[in-house]
């Protein structure tokens, strides 16, 4: 009996734009519209400047990441995972893969989650919804209720390293997979951007689904430029029908 191929899917901000969450680096991305916004997710200014933290909490309160709904791209990956062995490695922090129906064990959140907060001092975790309730009640920069330390989103900010355990798991999946699909990611942010190379070195095929060119385009077996919410269901149907 032939074992079924393992598919690794790396997803970036592009898969969630149709859910109303803007990407960062695209032509209409957050950095293009507001270059100063990058400070809000960069560790050093966030820790140093209370005003940056206050703006960051307003961004979290007003952002779409916590209330957005999955789109056809997210749902297509649920369908794929129902037919074939799939592991989703996501740079996104919105939790939409799980909200669409993927079990936690099939999703590796490389950059953490926006649904929780963490104290930078005592490292305790809490729920983002509770922290935002404090903001709504009049605390513009809520501190940790255990030690008084600075609270941040439980995400990997610029200037922070990825969790080495999570990164090692992602690298192991990339090395073991037979097909690596990169969806909606610029493939420019390391160390995550090294995952396609690891997959290629392991003999995997590479498919890139992204509107803009990436550094890996010349190595891809297939490039898909169509909008992700249209392209991914079509791609998944091809694999599930073939299977």
From TrEMBL:
Under the heading CDD domains, the entry gives:
SIR2-fam
Its domain of life reads Bacteria
Enzyme Commission number(s) from the entry: 2.3.1.286
Asked if Ion transport is a keyword of the record, the answer is no
Chain sites annotated for binding Zn(2+): 119, 122, 144, 147
Top enzyme category: transferase
UniProt keyword annotation of Nucleotide-binding present: no
Q: Which GO terms describe its molecular function?
A: histone deacetylase activity, NAD-dependent; hydrolase activity; metal ion binding; NAD+ binding
Q: Where is the active site?
A: 111 (proton acceptor)
> Could you tell me the keywords of this UniProt record?
Hydrolase, Metal-binding, NAD, Transferase, Zinc
Residue intervals of the Deacetylase sirtuin-type domain: 1-242
The protein's name in its UniProt record: protein acetyllysine N-acetyltransferase
């Amino acid at each position: 009996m032939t074992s079924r191929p393992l598919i690794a899917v790396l997803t970036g901000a592009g898969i969630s734009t149709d859910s109303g969450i803007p990407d960062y680096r695209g032509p209409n991305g957050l950095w293009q519209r507001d270059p100063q916004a990058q400070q809000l997710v960069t560790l050093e200014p966030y820790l140093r400047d209370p005003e940056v933290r206050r703006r960051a909490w307003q961004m979290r309160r007003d952002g779409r990441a916590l209330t957005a709904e999955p789109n056809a791209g997210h749902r297509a990956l649920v369908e794929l995972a129902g037919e074939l062995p799939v592991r989703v490695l996501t740079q996104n922090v919105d939790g939409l893969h799980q909200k669409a129906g993927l079990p936690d064990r099939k999703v590796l959140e490389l950059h953490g989650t926006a649904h929780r907060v963490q104290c930078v001092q005592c490292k305790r975790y809490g729920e983002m919804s509770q922290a935002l309730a404090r903001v709504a009640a009049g605390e513009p920069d809520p501190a940790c209720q255990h030690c008084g330390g600075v609270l941040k989103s439980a995400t990997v900010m610029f200037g922070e390293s990825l969790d080495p355990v999570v990164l090692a798991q992602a690298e192991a999946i990339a090395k073991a997979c037979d097909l690596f699909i990169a969806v909606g990611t610029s493939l420019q942010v390391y160390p995550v951007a090294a995952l396609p190379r690891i997959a290629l070195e392991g003999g995997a095929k590479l498919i890139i689904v992204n509107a803009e060119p990436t550094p890996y385009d010349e190595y891809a077996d297939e490039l898909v430029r169509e909008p992700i919410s249209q392209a991914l269901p079509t791609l998944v149907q091809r694999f599930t029908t073939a299977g």
